[in-house]
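[step 3/7] inverse_fold.run input=structure_tokens len=409
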């Protein structure tokens, strides 16, 4: 059989379906934009041998801020006790960027995500700024419209404006055919417990799909516990300090909702207690290299995993991370925590992310009927008892990505 765009069988040194164990020289058959078969070596003749690479599902970066992609290296992360100094740096940086620069930054960050093999992105966007760029790109995405406002009125106004604008733009983009409805969604992100009105933000999170930064720094815990600490001065200097807005405990943010949409994403969770009372289908998004850059104490993700809590990985933004390579996040975890088995680690950048963002029926694993979203990751020449060791070894080389049955060029 010849390789056509309609029907192709690929092989490589390793195939990682994620839905099952790795297959040495396994074969993946693609029909149109779908996966038609994932089989062991010898089940059928391959049209194309990709060589010394791993074929893995398209990668999922569950948390980034593409609109900060121009900030690489400009705002050095602080130690945990001076986190508000870093926030001041981010605010000052944002004030220097024109809307045109922000759009260029978003496009550059998006291109970087795609180059590294990302096929599903959870992006937090100030005023939904990344919508048009993300919607036009060959990727799946959930774009969370960021909401900020400590006073009840300010948060309410921001939410109403976002709901109105988001709904309108969603309709225009999808009706015009510019955005395939099946690859792109929007949601909202009440930013963080130090920047939103608690009762209003929790009300929103009880209504539908949201992502919130939670338990990121020790100062946030102090603010919520006693309304003191570095955040008070930070918010006073911004002219927005409002003690009446701070009414919830940290774990009060672990709300769920009754809609048929994904449950909330809790981003960072660096300081959440290991026994935090998560509800079913909620997600922790751990950003390993950013966590490391801020010198936080060890992250509780291993305890969460042991308890069956869904954990996926994010790069966070280039204001705190060296690049937007989600596989590099997993490699970082592998190097520092060799006790974490390869299988759940790979799941954190594939299927767990797809489940968290509501795309598991289409993406996140190589399974018959799912979208043909896959990445060919170059492997080192050596052997290893566990093939995950090869995948998570720091190894250079360009990755080739197929999205919906077509190789990205
Ligand atoms: Zn973030």
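[step 3/7] decode complete -> sequence:
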């Amino acid at each position: 059989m010849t390789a056509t765009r309609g029907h192709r069988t690929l092989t490589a040194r390793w195939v990682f379906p994620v839905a099952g164990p790795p297959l040495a020289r396994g074969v993946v058959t693609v029909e149109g934009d779908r996966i038609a078969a994932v089989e062991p070596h010898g089940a059928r003749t391959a049209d194309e041998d990709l060589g010394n690479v791993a074929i893995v599902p398209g990668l999922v970066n569950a948390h980034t801020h593409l609109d900060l992609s121009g900030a690489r290296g400009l705002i050095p992360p602080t130690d945990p006790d001076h986190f508000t100094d870093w926030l001041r740096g981010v605010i000052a940086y944002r004030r220097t960027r024109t809307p045109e620069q922000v759009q260029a930054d978003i496009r550059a960050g998006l291109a970087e995500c795609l180059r590294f093999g990302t096929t599903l992105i959870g992006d937090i966007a100030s005023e939904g700024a990344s919508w048009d760029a993300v919607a036009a790109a060959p990727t799946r995405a959930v774009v969370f419209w960021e909401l900020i406002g400590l006073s009840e009125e300010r948060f309410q106004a921001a939410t109403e404006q976002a709901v109105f604008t988001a709904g309108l733009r969603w309709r225009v983009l999808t009706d015009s055919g510019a955005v395939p409805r099946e690859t792109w969604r929007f949601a909202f992100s009440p930013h963080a417990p130090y920047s939103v009105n608690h009762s209003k933000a929790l009300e929103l999170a009880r209504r539908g799909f949201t992502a919130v930064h939670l338990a990121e720094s020790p100062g946030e815990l102090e603010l919520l516990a006693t309304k003191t600490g570095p955040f008070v001065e930070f918010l006073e200097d911004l002219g927005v300090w409002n003690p009446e807005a701070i009414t919830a405990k940290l774990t009060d943010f672990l709300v769920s909702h009754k809609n048929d949409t994904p449950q909330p994403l809790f981003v960072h969770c660096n300081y959440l207690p290991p026994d935090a009372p998560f509800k079913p289908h909620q997600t922790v998004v751990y950003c390993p290299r950013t966590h490391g850059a801020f010198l936080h104490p060890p992250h509780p993700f291993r305890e969460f995993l042991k308890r069956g809590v869904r954990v996926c990985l994010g790069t966070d933004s280039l204001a705190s991370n060296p690049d937007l390579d989600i596989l590099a996040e997993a490699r970082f975890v592998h190097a520092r925590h060799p006790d974490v088995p390869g299988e759940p680690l790979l799941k954190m950048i594939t299927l767990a992310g797809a489940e968290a963002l509501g795309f598991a029926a289409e993406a996140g694993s190589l399974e018959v009927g799912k979208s043909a979203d896959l990445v060919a990751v170059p492997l080192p020449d050596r052997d290893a008892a566990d093939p995950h060791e090869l995948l998570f070894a720091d190894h250079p080389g360009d990755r080739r990505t197929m999205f919906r049955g077509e190789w990205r060029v």
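[step 4/7] annotate
The pocket of zinc ion is lined by residues 63, 65, 124, 213, 267, 316 (CB under 6 Å).
The chain has two domains: 7-56+367-407, 59-357.
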